[in-house]
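Record type: monomer structure entry
Structure origin: computed from sequence
Chain ID: A
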Amino acid sequence: MTPPADPDPTETGLAETGLADDAPLAPEEAFATWAARVRADREQVHRLREVEDPSDFYAPVAARFRMDPRRTGDATLDELRLLARPTETWLDIGAGGGRFALPIALLTREVIAVEPSRGMIDVLREGMRENAIGNIQVIEGHWPVADPPTVDVSLMAHVGYDIEAIGSFLDAMEAASRRLCVAVMGQTAMTTVATLYWQPIYGEPRAMLPALPELVALLLARGRSPTVRLVERIAPTFDSFEALVAAARRQLWLKPGSERDQKLEALLRAAAREVNGRWQLPEEEARIGVVTWTA
């Protein structure tokens, strides 16, 4: 495939990532920077957390990823819909409960969904049944899979933040893609509660995972010409205060009823608000990048 001409930073949003004017890093430096952030996050969590990893980290919250595939008002999905072609096959890496796999399947020939969480796969398959969507093939496992498919478009949506070996991940993604690679990433890693409350709870700043700016730097270092569209992020809401507390506890790796857990609940009671029957926390304005590139 012939790479497109270098994109205009103003039109693509590259200028707003803070990287448009920077000289590209050497690939080794970009990989090392990414890996160092992932290790710092992992080491901090292991050192401070009160609970161990569950066997299926996403199983307790998989139901939150159940979404209407025909929904409107989702700016990220709107961008992905513009990229979909009816004759093509998409690969959704880390498809979760199908929040993008299901709506993309309505617009394409087939979606191949790769997902390691059994809880998430159950939600995805329920969504397929409920919406009579039969053109999704599910592969249980971590990317890269042993026998990767060849597709027209590969998508990684909110996947990669905590992947240390990001180079081999992207190599396999690009090798699988005939037309386009797509990544959906927040301007910062999507751990809002942990970012807000890590220091008050643990007494030290949160180690920040790599996110959109680091991905753009990495792609430029690899000689790619990424296009970035920035869209507004929809802040998460919860159907009860208790559900908000449970989500915050999970992100902060706290044991229910511990001293730190009680402190967290007090902080949340002071900050959370109920809007139209849904609970949420005040957040700084944040955006999500929809990144496209060719290999």
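Annotation 1: The chain has one domain: 9-235.
Annotation 2: The beta strands are 89-93, 110-115, 136-140, 151-157, 177-186, 227-232, 273-275, 278-280, 287-293.
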